Amino acid sequence: MTFLDHARLMATYNTWMNRKLYDTAAHLEPSELARERGAFFGSILGTMNHLAVADILWLQRFRNHPAARPALDTVLALPSPTSLDQILETDLAKLRALRVTLDRAFEDFVATLDEAGLDVVVSYARGGGERQAKLLGPVLGHVFNHQTHHRGQLSTLLSQVGLDIGVTDLNALIPSRA
Question: pTM here?
Answer without folding.
Answer: 0.95
